[in-house]
Amino acid sequence: MSIDLFDINSLLSEEEQIVRNNVSRFVDENVKPIIQDCFESHSFPKQLIQPIAELGLLGSSIEGYGCAGMNSISYGLICQELERGDSGVRSFVSVQSSLVMYPIFTFGSEEQKEEWLPKLAKAEAIGCFGLTESQGGSDPANMKTHAKKDGDDWVINGSKMWITNGSIADLALIWANTEDGIRGFLVETSTSGFTANEIDNKFSLRGIGYI
Amino acid sequence: MLPEVVGLKGPLSCLTQARYGISWGAIGAAEACLEELIEYTKTRVLFDRALDENQAIQIRLADMQRRITNAGLLSHRLGQLKDEGRMNPTQVSLAKWNNVRMALDIARDCRDMLGGSGISAEYVPIRHMLNLESVITYEGTETIHQLTVGRALTGKNAF
Description:
The structure holds 2 protein chains of 2 kinds. By secondary structure, chain A is of the alpha+beta class. Chain A has a domain at about 10-110: Acyl-CoA dehydrogenase/oxidase, N-terminal domain (Butyryl-Coa Dehydrogenase, subunit A, domain 1). Chain A contains 5 helices and 7 strands. A 3-stranded mixed β-sheet of chain A has the order 3-6-7, covered by helices on one side. In chain A, α1 (about 15-40) packs parallel to α3, α3 runs antiparallel to α4 (about 85-105) and α4 packs antiparallel against α5 (about 110-120). Chain B has one domain (about 15-155): Butyryl-CoA Dehydrogenase, subunit A, domain 3. A two-stranded antiparallel sheet of chain B has the order 1-2. The radius of gyration of chain B is 19 Å and the shape is elongated. Classes of the chains: A alpha+beta, B mainly alpha. Chains A and B meet through α1, α3, α4 and β7 of A and α1, α2 and α4 of B.
């Protein structure tokens, strides 16, 4: 454990300290010994996913739906301890929790929540967040991807870039223009017409995948 | 389709959640770098004494600890505000900007203080440093977060 000159630890509740210690131990025992090799070989440490789910770190702030229902300080501590191991491991959890599970919980129908949140919490499904496009970056309003209603279906056309977890995801939350404005679509990556390509030549976050 | 949100505020509200976590995460990366550097300076002997006996080294270590402590207090306060339902995007921008900049600067400085060893994957700082180049860019670049705070101060949107 790092030096804590101002005894910030004593500001934490017992529950928060337990979460921190559990994640810290997980990082020391499971992440640190392998992560440097993952970075060098540009390979995603899939063996870390299940233990992360078992610790309740996916969608940790959500109440119900098989999620841990922890507070915001606990979520922060989870991120801090995971990133003591590697920013990529923390990114994986950030995407699943804040960018996929949070919007399903906040903006989804009851049916969507029941279908996806328990699976995402258990890592039976991995999610990614498709907002950024090659021309977008800091200007996400400049979005070319569009969705059009076709009978009961939606047809989405476009491409996204820099999508963390994109190449391992089962579920993509794709943001697209519609006649009513930007909407979010839950797209199973097995849907025909969906493709994801890895960016091979990056020198950063090499333990995790980007489209 | 997610039925309950229309417009850019949907994805932006998700990013606010993620950026909150990133502000905490960066502290962990900085701690990992400093922890390893302190161990290194105990054992690396240069000019007949351990590195950590030098004032120049101690000042740089102390400065890293100062910045990590500040970031930890900032994130803890942000967490309290979030749990009270009072967190706003300007606070998140300031915390993400401050803490990721802090971590990237510390990772680079740790890499430097490890000397030639700093470019080896045997030590963690260069990996954290390279990762943090992404972290300072994704989920709102440092510049966008600065301009978000600037907008709160002036009431004028410059981007």
